[in-house]
Design goal:
3 domains; Multidrug-efflux Transporter Regulator, Chain: A, Domain 2; about 325 residues; Methyltransferase, Methionine Synthase (B12-binding Domains), Chain A, domain 1; alpha/beta; globular; Rossmann fold
Length: about 325
């Protein structure tokens, strides 16, 4: 039996990704990540490859945005039906409505702040970028700041650098400003007495440390204390520091380069020196290119930043 005209309209792809991003408050980078990693929706495509979203997609994404703003994990809810999502929203009640309002209210819109930040990077506007970061800190909750603004910002800078839209000088300027912001943000966390300690670094050859700083923020929010060791450290130095402080885990960020035999050798050396029982957590965009080595050393791999809380809780 053919669908009714109303049903055809509801399921027909007719909204661009820009329209969906504006109406839901979800950045385009996050939308693509939800599609790629979780298959939250599957938009149709034009002949030129442009995404087109249906009314049904738009409603589902709006519900997912409400629920993630109310601290539901996207990995837990992405494949629920619209009816199930409506039920969760009803159960969440006022908390969800309030969170959704925060995310779409003027300066509290992460997508708008993200657009401003990326424009500041493109224009070498260091003061403008710092000002956007400060406004984001003032107007977004820390989970929303990390999930909907900082993570997409780092991904956006990385994508633009890799495809040539940004020069190395753009990336270095952004790294200096965002790195200082994250360092100051991490210094504000209150650590409870007796909190477990995790050492955070990047291995030798991995010079990009923003992912490590962001992972540190996530660890603080999860109730851990952080021994931050910085970028491009040899395995021996990481383990020496970890043993001196009695850490419960080592966490590494690996972003670029991908598939480097030297980095793979450092990962194996880290496991050898740390012993078989100390958990090694590894995240970052380059993780897939080192998957074989990471499986070999028994590392805990973080595919999505929001998975980190569950991994830390399991240790």
């Amino acid at each position: 039996m053919s669908a009714s005209p109303k049903e055809d309209l509801h399921t027909q792809g007719r909204h661009s990704i820009a329209v969906v991003s504006r109406r839901t408050g979800i950045s385009q980078l996050v939308l693509r990540a939800w599609e790629r990693r979780y298959h939250a929706v599957v938009p149709s495509r034009t002949e030129t490859g442009r995404r087109l979203y249906s009314d049904h997609d738009l409603e589902k994404l709006s519900l997912l945005q409400m629920l993630t703003n109310a601290d539901h994990r996207i990995g837990d809810i992405a494949n629920l039906s619209v009816e199930e999502l409506r039920g969760l929203v009803a159960e969440s009640g006022a908390q969800t409505v309030a969170a959704a309002s925060r995310s779409t209210d003027g300066v509290r819109d992460p997508a708008g702040l993200l657009k401003e930040a990326l424009a500041a990077v493109q224009n070498f506007d260091d003061r403008g970028l710092a000002a956007v970061l400060d406004r984001a800190l003032l107007n977004l909750s820390k989970p929303l700041l990390r999930r909907e603004f900082l993570t997409p910002l780092l991904e956006g800078i990385g994508e633009r650098w890799s495809d040539g839209r940004l020069r190395i000088s753009h990336e270095h300027m952004a790294t200096a400003i965002v790195g200082a912001f994250l360092t100051a943000l991490n210094a504000r966390y209150q650590v409870l007495p007796g909190a477990p300690l995790v050492a955070v670094a990047t291995p030798s050859g991995q010079l990009h440390e923003l992912g490590a700083l962001l992972a540190s923020s996530h660890a603080f929010e999860a109730g851990w204390d952080v021994l931050y060791l910085g970028p491009s450290l040899p395995a021996e130095d990481i383990v020496t520091a970890a043993r001196a402080r009695g850490v419960r885990a080592i966490m590494l960020s690996i972003v670029f380069p991908t598939g480097d035999p030297g980095v793979a050798a450092q990962l194996r050396e880290l496991r050898k020196l740390a012993g078989p029982d100390l958990p090694i957590i590894v995240g970052g965009q380059a993780v897939p290119s080192y998957r074989g080595t990471l499986v070999e050393i028994g590392a805990l791999m973080v595919g999505e930043a929001e998975e980190l809380s569950g991994i830390l809780a399991s240790i």
